[in-house]
Amino acid sequence: MSTRRAVCGAAMFVAVAASAGDVGTIRAPGRLSETGLYATTGTGSIDPRNLPYAPQYPLWSDGAVKTRWIRLPEGAAIDVSNPDAWVFPVGTKLWKEFAFSGRKIETRMLWRASADAWVYATYAWNVEQTEAVLAPEEGMRNHVEIASAKRHSIPGVSDCKSCHESAPSQVLGFNALQLSDDRDPMAVHAEPLRPGMVTLRLLAENHRLDPPRPEFVTSPPRIRAASPRERAVLGYFAGNCGHCHNTSGPLARIGLVLAPDASPPAAQGPEPAIPTAVNAKGRFQVPGVQDGATRLVAPGAPERSAIVYRMRSRRPTSQMPPLGTELADADAIRLVESWIADDLAPASASGPVPASPPAEAAPAPCTTGPSGRASPAPGLLRTPAS
Predict the structure, then answer these.
(1) Residue 125 belongs to what H/E stretch?
(2) What is the mean pLDDT of residues 302-318?
(3) 353: Cα separation from own chain's centroid
(4) Which of 96-110, 182-196, 314-328 has the lowest mean pLDDT?
(5) Which of 363, 5, 28 is nearest to 158 (CA)?
């Protein structure tokens, strides 16, 4: 069977077993202007074949302004037989541009170069803002200051793999929920849909989905939730945590599922995050909380909720998400805290409510990856609630 490898970095060579005894070599261009993003030489106008899109639950990236495009090969369709794991045609390219304080810092490209290989490349912009060049394989640590004593890093190979190879599909943020025409008005950091942006309806009308999936248009996907606030919270978890905490990736054994399922909106029962997180125990103990009283989500008690503590933390061994962010997402934390304190209050957690924990304390042990940042592996390990 062919071996799929995801790669990014300066030495963008990938050996791919296309068939027995046949090895191909794939290389990403050295300059962003050579990737097909732009219509002409240089980095001026975007090629009209590259369509903009905005996921309704965007990934938190320290407040970066992000712009995204996708190009599907002419006449090709996305295989959506499995609504949880879209299969993109060979030749698909996606780009995501990151800007801080009005300046472009990096642009990432994801390219399905063959049936067996996805190529991940990150391009760092020059001071003149006229071109971006391929970043080194190990990434570029502390590349630019984004806040006092906080610097943005351009990801390396291991960082790319840790997210994109943990999800059901290598492409993150471009799926049925994220492109649903039933947009969540309370979504944190939601980006407005501009004319021409890709949605499920646009894909369906242009015959870019195979099979057609008319229900994506007549009954657009949405988070099943008990309240508008819960919908926004679970949507945030889907966009920021679900690519690792799902039922098919390396962390499936943990049992914490923050990815939504693909059942129709009218389906009965809660999203998987409710039974796997609410009042569920984990290995992580919130500092300052009585032993055994921590829950992943402690109904009515944000101060005993490991998810809240780890969203707030920016220690490499305790923060969540473990990669790609140096600043806690204050808006999301407020939303999650209010959901736990108010929406979940009637379902009381077991045990007494201890005093609030300190802002930071020594975290539980956690492994680190090659980039020196925390691996998501020991994350929010779950055991049945007592």
Answers:
(1) strand 117-125
(2) 96
(3) 33
(4) 314-328
(5) 5
Examine the domain organization and report whether 286 and 210 are in the same domain. no
Angle, vertex CA 150, rays to CA 146 and CA 153, nearest 5: 75
Q: Are residues 254 and 208 in the same domain?
A: no
**Parent domain of 45:** 5-218
Residues 6+ positions from 159 with CB-CB distance below 8 Å: 139, 323, 324, 369, 371, 373
- What lies within 8 Å, CB to CB, of 22 at 6+ separation is none
Closest CA to 234 of 186, 303, 295, 192: 186
**44-78 confidence digits (pLDDT tens):** 899 999 999 999 999 999 999 999 999 999 999 99
Q: Tokens 């499936």 label which residue?
A: 252
d(CA 357, CA 365): 18
Looking at the structure of the chain, the number of domains it has is 2
Do 213 and 296 belong to one domain?
no
pTM of the shown model: 0.83
What's the mean per-residue pLDDT of the chain?
84
| Same domain flag for 76 and 189 | yes
